[in-house]
Specification:
- The protein is of the alpha+beta class.
- Helices cover 39% and strands 19% of the residues.
- It contains 17 helices and 18 strands.
- The protein has an eight-stranded mixed beta sheet with strand order 1-7-8-13-12-11-9-10, with helices on both faces. A five-stranded mixed beta sheet has the order 15-14-16-17-18, sandwiched between helices.
- Histidyl-adenosine monophosphate (HAM) binds next to β8, β12, β13 and α13.
- Histidyl-adenosine monophosphate binds next to β8, β12, β13 and α13.
Length: 472
């Protein structure tokens, strides 16, 4: 017997269903509208990219890259990796002429084997692809690939779509989730740019009807000994002193990513973290001035913020301004947006030195917070349900449905004839506002019957009068 067990969506993924999808559409439409008024255009990068792109951009030691990516082998047809591998083999092998025509044998000495294994590993890695865990890396890749540095700078792009991270699912945390993000690439790194981007975000949340958001900002300086690198060294030193009081994750991070210890939510680590040095006291003069100017620019725009020296973000590409926005009704996963400046990233990905800043909103969380705040739209029924009786009336009903739909009304036309009582019952169940009743009488007289299902009022109207009445 065939196996008839039912299927379920994979853990951490879910179906977005009506009426919620109406809210998703409304939020996305608001993003298109608000971002356009700030001069952004939409980009739609692919959903999978070379694994190496994310490893290099987001950082090999981050949770995202080391644990959470969905990766799979995807060797290109004429594999770049295999060509490089063969070139390398030819280069280290010693050629030997043979008697078999033009063939040449390449002998590889045992001493070359470690190098060959290394090349093979590299080749395998170059043929791996990953579902995107975020889109900033993709946007930078596209900026370089399409020579966007030749366009008027800065280039302002936004995107929306699914991202994939293999995290432990919980409320507000999914393995397939959706982001709405924006990036500004090229041009200067004027603090006004940081502030305007944040202003746009807050305007967007406001237009969505999301209230009670909180914006936190910080500056994590730049990678130099007299700035972040110096601070990280100092932080590591201090962390080593209290190492045995820290949890396993934080202990590991002392070596790999000490800044991330500041992100810890572990109750018993909070008092220890509170005593650690603050990055603001270790920024170089330029970064300090930039941060002060960002705050002034935010104030000039009436944007209310809170400073949080522990806001370091979980991706390696950030420098200077970092920010996060929390929303209400989300429980522990309350960050609804994260972003920051990443001036070195385009260069790291093989482009010319380019300034960059951006953010990504967690759309699932934004929707959840709107729903918790009572902003969910009710299920929408048809505007008009056409109750037709008899074949003559059916032809008129088809025409009426077409006209009403062309005018923009939501119309339900039953595909089989229903008895009068049944038709009205179905119309009410669907939540229709009106029933248009079409029988032989209506067709002959040209006066159609329209019933308001909320008030039960009924009136006779010509086709033209009915359209005008409904439009009003
Ligand atoms: P992120 O902080 O990793 O930053 O993600 C941004 C937002 O995506 C989070 O604040 C959260 O709302 C949402 N999010 C992340 N993971 C999940 C998940 N598993 N389930 C549901 N929502 C999630 C970035 O992705 C950067 N690319 C942002 C950026 C753009 N920075 C500069 N430009």
């Amino acid at each position: 017997m065939a196996n008839k067990s039912k299927f379920q969506a994979i853990r951490g993924t879910r179906d977005l269903l009506p009426p919620d999808t109406a809210l998703w559409n409304r939020v996305e439409q608001t993003a298109h509208e608000v971002f356009t008024t700030y001069g952004f255009d939409e980009i739609r990068p692919p959903i999978f990219e070379p694994t190496e792109l994310f490893a290099r951009a987001v950082g090999g030691d981050t949770d995202i890259v080391s644990k959470e990516m969905y990766s799979f082998p995807d060797p290109p047809e004429a594999t770049e990796g295999s060509r490089r591998f063969i070139d390398a083999v030819v280069a280290i092998g010693e050629e030997e002429s043979t008697s078999e025509g033009k063939t040449k044998r390449i002998t590889i000495g045992e001493k070359h084997l470690p190098e060959l294994y290394r090349l093979q590993e590299e080749w395998k890695k170059s043929d791996l692809a990953s579902l995107r865990p975020e889109a900033t890396a993709s946007v930078c890749r596209a900026y370089i690939e399409h020579n966007m540095q030749q366009m008027p700078q800065p280039v302002k792009l936004y995107y929306m779509g699914p991202m994939f991270r293999r995290e432990r699912p919980q409320k507000g945390r999914y393995r397939q989730f959706y982001q709405i993000g924006a990036e500004i690439l090229g041009g200067p790194d004027a603090p006004a740019i940081d502030a305007e981007l944040i202003e746009m975000l807050m305007t967007f949340f406001d237009k969505c009807g999301l209230h009670g958001t909180e914006l936190s900002i910080n500056s994590i300086g730049h990678a130099a000994d007299n700035c972040r690198r110096g601070y990280v060294a100092k932080l590591r030193e201090e962390l080593l002193k209290v190492k045995d009081k820290l949890g396993a994750d934080s202990q590991r991070r002392i070596d790999t990513t000490p800044l991330r210890v500041l992100d810890s939510k572990l109750e018993h680590e909070q008092a220890i973290i509170a005593t650690l040095p603050h990055i603001a006291d270790h920024l170089c003069d330029d970064c300090k001035a930039h941060y002060a100017a960002v705050k002034r620019e935010l104030e000039a725009r009436g944007v209310i913020y809170r400073e949080n020296w522990r806001l370091v973000r979980g991706l390696d590409y950030y420098m200077r301004t970092t920010f996060e926005i929390t929303a209400q009704g989300l429980g522990s996963q309350n960050a609804v947006c994260g972003g920051g400046r990443y001036d070195g990233l385009v260069e790291l990905l093989g482009g010319t030195p380019t300034k960059g800043i951006g953010f990504a909103i967690g759309e699932d969380r934004l929707i959840l917070s709107l729903q918790e705040g009572g902003k969910a739209p009710a299920a929408q029924g048809p505007d008009v349900f056409i109750a037709w009786m008899g074949q003559n009336a059916y032809a008129t009903a088809i025409r009426a449905a077409k006209t009403l739909r062309n005018t923009g009304f939501r119309v339900e036309l039953p595909g089989t004839e229903l008895k009068f009582g049944k038709a009205l019952e179905r119309a009410s169940k669907l939540g229709s506002r009106f029933a248009l009743i079409l029988g032989d009488n209506e067709v002959q007289s040209g006066e159609w019957t329209l019933k308001n299902l909320a008030t039960s009022e009924q009136q006779k109207l010509s086709e033209q009068a009915l359209l005008e009445y409904l439009r009003r």
